Amino acid sequence: MTASRTDDFLGLAGKVLAHTARSALAPKASRAVPRGDTRFVPPTPAPSKDEAEANDGWGFADSRFVVQPNGSTVLTGKRYNISNVELPALVPWVAKTLAAPLRYEDRHEPHYPPPVPDARRAPELRSALAAFLKEDQISEDPLVRLRRGHGHTGAEIWAIRYGKLERVPDLVVFPTSHEQVVALVEAAEQYQACLIPFGGGTNVTDALRLPPSEERFVIAVDMRRLCRIRWIDPVNLTACIEAGAVGRHIATELGKYKLMLGHEPDSLEFSTLGGWIATNASGMKKNRYGNIEDLVLDMQVVTAHGVVTRPQVGPRESIGANPKNFMFGSEGNYGIITSAVVKLFRMPEVQRYGSVVFPNLGSGLDFLYDLQRSGAVPASVRVVDNTQFQFGVALKPKSHGVAARVKSKFEKALVTQLKGFDPKELAVATVVFEGSAEEVAYQENTLYRIAKQHGGLRAGAKNGERGYQLTFGIAYIRDLTFTHWAIAESFETSVPWSKALSLYERVRERVRREHEARRLPGNPFFTGRITQTYTTGVCIYFYMGFYCKGVKDPVRMYTELEHAAREEILAAGGTLSHHHGVGKIRQEFLGDIYSPGSLEFMRQVKRAVDPQNVFGANNHGVSGTVQLEAGSA
Amino acid sequence: MTASRTDDFLGLAGKVLAHTARSALAPKASRAVPRGDTRFVPPTPAPSKDEAEANDGWGFADSRFVVQPNGSTVLTGKRYNISNVELPALVPWVAKTLAAPLRYEDRHEPHYPPPVPDARRAPELRSALAAFLKEDQISEDPLVRLRRGHGHTGAEIWAIRYGKLERVPDLVVFPTSHEQVVALVEAAEQYQACLIPFGGGTNVTDALRLPPSEERFVIAVDMRRLCRIRWIDPVNLTACIEAGAVGRHIATELGKYKLMLGHEPDSLEFSTLGGWIATNASGMKKNRYGNIEDLVLDMQVVTAHGVVTRPQVGPRESIGANPKNFMFGSEGNYGIITSAVVKLFRMPEVQRYGSVVFPNLGSGLDFLYDLQRSGAVPASVRVVDNTQFQFGVALKPKSHGVAARVKSKFEKALVTQLKGFDPKELAVATVVFEGSAEEVAYQENTLYRIAKQHGGLRAGAKNGERGYQLTFGIAYIRDLTFTHWAIAESFETSVPWSKALSLYERVRERVRREHEARRLPGNPFFTGRITQTYTTGVCIYFYMGFYCKGVKDPVRMYTELEHAAREEILAAGGTLSHHHGVGKIRQEFLGDIYSPGSLEFMRQVKRAVDPQNVFGANNHGVSGTVQLEAGSA
User: Fold this and answer.
1) The whole model's pTM is what?
2) Record: contact B9-A496, CB cut-off 8 A
3) What are the strands of the beta sheet with A537-547, ordered from one edge?
4) Are B187 and B125 in contact (CB under 8 A)?
5) ipTM of this predicted structure
6) Which residues of chain A make contact with B233, given a CB cutoff of 8 A?
7) Whose CB among A180, A596, B237, B383 lies 3.0–4.6 Å from B344's, allowing a Cys bridge?
8) Nearest Cβ partner for B593 among A26, A311, A578
């Protein structure tokens, strides 16, 4: 039945309505939307084993990079694709890149734990807490308090390894219910205490650093025991999840029902739902599933004026100036998020990886631009610059035996093809496709066609997969560099398409200049990858570092370099942050990105909704600029 | 080059890095992202002619439905696909549906204009305004004031046609620059006046109705002259547009550069960008382009504490609790939006319509559910219920001449196929596909395959197109019904998939019951269409009405019915509003959808950011419940 023959269907249908007698119904629909109450409460999983997390650095306690006497590096444990294998090229490559004499024996051993400031005393408040918290929900342990007093900026980790923190929370509590959080806020109000919500502790914005001027008793509210999935609605694809649930557990539990959240920040393993909302987080697969503000339909927040919550929530609403909207990026300033209603997705029928080599970063960017405009954007596509490509190569395990010999058969042919590329210029795109078989096939065809137009050469699914899995493993490298007299950290921005390449180049050059001006040793380490694309621009994620043996106050030097890099980013048309947030690390730039009226709006809101400043984290300068003591890190 | 052969590309690339000499670069990329400053300022268009809008009803002054002595209806003017043709079936069908004796001669003639309340006097303020506004930017004209004192609820239009408004603004100003709005807010603060922003005046929430208790001098701030496109960035697909620009002008101006905003609310012709933000609007093509909160990257808002604005804005940011987020759905309570930075889209390579007939609304819903999950969702897809299908048939122009004879050739074949459908049950989906040729082909294939699985029969592109274009024409019908003793209006909700059909049925039954209980004449008119889909549910848009000749206070009756319908919606799992908003018409339900803490949060924010209540519209109960006088409408 062609379209043209049916174009006058409506005219016809009028006749049908007028003349046709009621006839048999058409064949039944193949599948009906289930009706009625479609929620279920999943069983609470047994506590996982082997999940101890490190207190003195990133990630799991069993995973860390160690340089061996032979110069090879090993990531201990068995969790990652590069765990428990010798990585012979890593240290030599880093040494060459930094122009620094990294050696096994030349170590800067951490002296964790640092001295921990004594806790203040608040016996009355302590008794009040005992009325609704069990003994194992309250801790004054110095190391427990220390860990809740920082996140994961380089400065913070350096401080706990080689220095100290001037001020950490006086007490840590572990609520297990929303009601306990309500009682906690009431107690804090009554006894003039300050509450700092703590999720995964993975922020890189000094958001958990206490203002040294904070004279009140400070309670860190560790949300990790408030981590149940309250309900799942597999038909309407929603769930209510408590705010302290970490990404890896959410993924595991939803996965049992072939469902997923689709939010995959690089910190996925350790960061929490509440933390994602409070930092306005972004995930690697946001093209398909959205960023956190797209995923969260509603949330429950305990504020000083009561609980912000709603009895039911719909797919999309126009219901006034919903307080929920103010919680994205709230960084602990306005209340404690206890749960959220989130969108779910069914696990994709097909997941496929891919990779493409481009002549240089510019052609990689051009490819992304056309891909974004094609409408066939895969779940994730990233382009790493040449340094990061080389970094990936340096992370190759030692190959040996049959596999090595077999591989060499293919290498000859490939070398020929790669001759078209300058190995010191080429850039690599890694891709994750997710969706139905049909959808993925359509996206793949489009992507490889566009890649070819920009000189791209397909480089296989395995390299794509490896690129993504490296994300989780390489997060541990920062701590390794510290032990060998290098200091390194990441930062990010978003920038319009037309300014992306010049921003990248300007920041690289600025870092080089600042490094030189300070007569820091060797060469700076600088690399970037384009991690997210939008119709309007991209996110660029940078790593920066330098060799710091003999450098007086390397943290201050690093901070100055990062500050300069951020200045350059803003001058080049970039934003203060794409997804890390502001916290205290970027507070001095707020006047550059907001009008005085905007800042006043934020501060007036803070005063109004938290008049007693119970939530005293004071991030993004909401109660004025915080002076972090220079000596503290 | 197969994937498997390249899977060890990284190992190989290491060799390349180590051994290959620098060689010629790969072929140049086919197209590069333009670099540098990519914005331009479009010329200000000459004022359009023939654009007079009606003051006493919907839309353009030249377009209104008129029943002719022969019983046919004509939409005057030439603007719409159903303009200037005889529609013989409309009145008979409406009469039959309402079981009411609608006749040409039985008219309820409006007596517009109603008496307009006298303006208060504020000579000092008036002088202060004259310092920065020209004489033609200030009006005390009663009809100009009247029009700024209402939107487009049925009650409001009934009031200006058959009753009166108790209170309208005392003065109307027409700023032409952001700076004038700043000066205006300062003047209002100094002289204790109240400001009510006015955009297209198309809201259906009583948002513009003045609280009768408002004792201050009230200035309506008509934003329509603040309507320039400040700049367009065709590379990064963004534009800065002043808040008073109406949808039709934005579309025309951007269209000159093959660009578009992609936001198409049913009020597109008349509503403004600022209004869309303030009501948290949704567009017909949100599947492809997003709702307003997805489209607006930044905005400039004049608040009581200064201007909320930012020097530059990025694709996506994490920069604290951005005040911008609080403006979506703000309904005029917190300041005056003067411009916004929005995303743009390139005009699609292909636009194609489609339509599908389903056995009933349930199978149409099932089709939408599977389509949403397929990932191949077209720009827009809607399903109308049987009554709305019949309504569309009733709007068919009189056919005559050759066309009519040619059509009949096809009708026989079609009648055969349609025999499988019950004409009193069938539902119709209308679809708009937009994108590249490849993308549209892919979406079409997927859609028609899924449609078939649910008993759907393709019904042609022309019917799809007609369905969409009818959207704009039928907006005028409400005013026709008034003139023939019927009262009718629309309302909407969003609801999870599993509750959508039962909600539809419950609301229909509730309306029937309430209509009967009040012994209203004839049958109620009730119809719904599913206008938007999400992974989590749908938006349903209802029309409701009844014959009201001889009914005492038909507006109160209608309001009671709508109130009952809303109660039923909430009880059935629907939301207070999908995109119309709260205003004052739904304020009494706020306690049902928000916790006391949520409402307190909103009210505290209001008091903090507007301590003098300069922006006194008092929508969504932000300063307490507004008592609209019963006699006023």
Assistant:
1) 0.94
2) no
3) A457-458, A350-358, A427-435, A380-384, A525-534, A537-547, A486-496
4) yes
5) 0.94
6) 496, 498
7) B237
8) A311
